[in-house]
Every structure is written in structure tokens, then in C-alpha cells.
């Protein structure tokens, strides 16, 4: 089975085509600046060089059509006809409480995704556009929605209800939803394979650490708690997001700085985090370089980030009543041995010991815990696209 995975943004479209016989990536690419000047498709067939194809790409339907035409192109294509695409899997950011797993897309599902637009106004609309575009270009092909929020729907009420009047939840669906669920699910499955154990027998803390970052407590394959909340703003300090703050800061800053709700939302989501603290960058590589050169604010930003991750790991070890493994994934988690070591240096009380030589790894699945460590420390590269392809294959078959 060949599965096309699509991830639509407001002016972009990422794609990967998988051959699910052996889970090989046949091709992948990005359509950027949809509806804008300078639009182009950047296509990479297999492991060959990328090909840039400038074009007038007015909307997502044109983008999908261009992707299909490129995949079947005589020179740079990887399939002989569009009929070889047997299913399409879509990343959908928010499924609310409606979806606790991936689903085949129909009119009822589309209506439910639309009802979640208030919860994800920047993400669900382009996700819907991508689904509708594929429906027009590939009308006979079944499509699957894979939700960022779905994996976290096993949380108990004590984890997802906020300390607001209960009517806020009943009437406005205000609760913790969690995000990065596809990534947390993927590394949970991979951890079980790496450890040679059944998922049902494992207590895991998964740390998805990138420009956006979240931590999840997982018991027997079910999420018990996670750091992101109603939106991806809650939780850890991130690249440009502030993470957990005293909510009274919101009206205080609005009054002091003369900001309206949109201004403050932008301030907390795009100007805060390690970028706001350091004044240098939202890229942790830049912060590490600046810190080594003596930049105190860059060093402070890195310390604050590690401290926040430590707090969540510690609290989730309590939630789980113990932990078998702590997993690091995503850009920073996979590629920064220094960050991993800094985060884990406070967990001797759990019986966790790391092997510094084994920790010198980037982007490779590795158990870097020391011999005799009671808790395993793992690096597991995430692959959300493959997780989407797997769910799509299973549902369509």
C-alpha cells in the first residue's frame, strides 16, 4: 500500500509518500507560499537531490494537484500513476473531545473538525483545506484524520479539568487537551520495542523537546497527564512561548503596556520563551553558542528551560508512582547531549544514572543509561509522518 501523508499550514503543504510494505519514504517535499508571490514546490524523490519548482500556486487545491503531478512525473516522479496512491493521511491539530484515535474521514468527521476551529483557529482551517483539496483531486481515495490531541484523550478528569468554574468546561470546552500526541504515541511504541517489553507494562515519561516542547506521563500506553493545555502555550518554556505563568500577569501586562488581547497573545506566543529571556534567538543551538561565549542571558535561558523540564519529569514520576524510562525526542531532545545531561543530573534519587559516552549521540535511537541504572534514559527520533501513515494504513485496510 502506498500512503500519501499531508500536513497543511495556512500557506504551506508538507507531504511524504510511503510504501507501507517496508515503510520506505518514496518522496517528500514542501509547497511553500501558497497564495503568495514566490510560491514553489521543493520535491525530493527518495534520497536524491531536492528539486525546486517555482509556480503560481493560488490555493491548496492547486498545491495538491501539483504534488500529484510531480509524484507521477516521468523524470522526478516515483509512481507511474495517481491510482497507485491508495490512501491519504492528514495531520489535524485539534480533535477536541470528539476523537480519541485516528478516524476515516466522512462528512460527520469534517463537521466535528470544523467545530474545533475555535480551539485551533490557526491550524484547523488549513487542515480542512488540505482534506477538501485531496477530496477534489483524489475523489476515489479514502482519507484519514490523525489528531495531535487524540493520544492525550486517556487523561483522567483530575488531569484535564482546570480550577475554573465547572461551567467553563461544560459550556466552552475549556480543559487540558495536550498536543504533540502523534509524536508521544510514536516514541512510546518505539520505546517498548527498544526495551523488549509490552507497552502495557511500562511507565514512561516522554519529552518532546523542540522549538515547541511538551512532556507526557504515560502508564501502560495511556496518557495520565501532559504539559500543554487548552492551547500549545501552556507548559514548558519554549522557543518563543512563555509556558506556565501566573495568569494574573495577563491583565497586569495589558494595563501596563496598553495591549489588547491579540497583542498579548502575540507577546506570549511569539516574543517570549528562550528568545525573550535571552534576547538572542529561539534556536537552542544559537543559545548554546552564545552561552559558551559568556552571554549570561543565553545561559540563563538554557538553565530555565532545563529546570522546567526537570520539574515536569519530577511531578510526572509522582503521578505515575515510579518510572521505567525517560525518553527524549524532537529536534533538541534528539540532538543535544548537553541538554539531556543537564536535565537528568537531578534524578539520582530515582536511581537514574547516565553513561556520558553513550549520551554522545544525535538523532539515533539509543539507551544511554549507565549499567545498573534503575530508570532507563532513551533517545528516540520521532517520526510523526510515519505514525500518520501507519494509522492510515491500519484504518483503510
TrEMBL record:
**Cofactor(s) it depends on:** Mg(2+); Mn(2+)
Q: Which InterPro entries match?
A: Ac/propionate_kinase, Aliphatic_acid_kin_short-chain, Aliphatic_acid_kinase_CS, ATPase_NBD
- According to the UniProt record, what class of enzyme is this? transferase
Q: Where Mg(2+) is bound, by residue?
A: 7, 384
Gene3D superfamilies to which the protein is assigned, alphabetical:
3.30.420.40
Q: Which reaction does it catalyse?
A: acetate + ATP = acetyl phosphate + ADP
In terms of PROSITE patterns, this protein maps to: ACETATE_KINASE_1, ACETATE_KINASE_2
Q: Which CDD domains match?
A: ASKHA_NBD_AcK_PK
**Record NCBIfam families:** ackA
> Could you say which protein family the record assigns here?
Belongs to the acetokinase family.
Q: Main role? A: Catalyzes the formation of acetyl phosphate from acetate and ATP. Can also catalyze the reverse reaction.
Q: Identify this protein by name.
A: Acetate kinase
